[in-house]
UniProtKB/TrEMBL annotation:
Coverage span on the entire protein: 185 to 442 of 442
Entry's Gene Ontology BP terms: cellular response to phosphate starvation
Keyword Oxidoreductase: no
GO annotations of cellular component type: plasma membrane
GO molecular function: phosphoprotein phosphatase activity; phosphorelay sensor kinase activity
Catalysed reaction, written as an equation: ATP + protein L-histidine = ADP + protein N-phospho-L-histidine
Protein name: histidine kinase
Domain Histidine kinase, chain residue ranges per copy: 41-257
Entry EC number(s): 2.7.13.3
Domain of life: Bacteria
Amino acid sequence: TGPDARLQTGDTELEGLEQAVNSLLDRMRQSYQQQARFVSDASHELRTPIAVIQGYANMLDRWGKEDEKILAESIDAIKSESDHMKKLVEQLLFLARGDSGRTKLTMEEFSLRETIKEVFDESVMIDSDHYYHLKESEDLKITGDAAMVKQAARILVDNAAKYTPAGADIVLQVKKNEKNHPCFVVQDEGIGIAAGDVSHVFERFFRADPARGRDSGGTGLGLSIAKWIVDRHGGYFQVLSREEIGTRITVCFPQNPH
Ligand code: ADP
């Protein structure tokens, strides 16, 4: 092989390297853009409750001392807006910690049925507006962070309650799916999700209808957190929903059930 052949080999090596560097740069750029968007969306979401609190504080300052109606209304609004802000900040911290790789999971074998039963018991206790049912469940054990999986299940049950009229049923179950993967299911008889929105519900800050989300005290971050947790377990979601009929979300863990 003469010098020309060496040059050609060098060229292809260089091209390969250039491609690898470019694709790395692309990914870094994309991740940077996503982070920048996240920070900008988060700031925007925080600005609204802050503005409302400021408005009511000013109103209190001017008229609150003489007018009891204004006093009561302002206190209510300030309380509910600061609750909303607290939730938003806690959820943002969870995602920011997760993004930066600072969240450590403690993996151990646990009973999925026990965990879902705990979520069921808590829901029955704190929400008297809905009828909760724990359907006949298999005792499936998986390896994962039980506290995290419980948090994901709680988010799905909270959503079921938020988007389902009072008096309706919410059903929980643990079972294997057609692929023999252990799963838990949360099913409601609520407002449902429009077909075109289903693929967006896991995006940060996405709310099917901003007005609805706002009324229910939603932040648009719950399902992003649930997805982060399920992803870290190598799991996946199956969403089945019909508007005005209800929603069924199944979370599966591709492990052989123990
Ligand atoms: P939020 O805090 O607004 O509930 P999520 O990330 O948990 O945020 O959910 C995103 C959006 O998906 C919600 O705003 C709502 O529009 C829709 N959604 C989630 N769960 C349900 C459900 N069980 N029934 C109807 N819509 C739902």
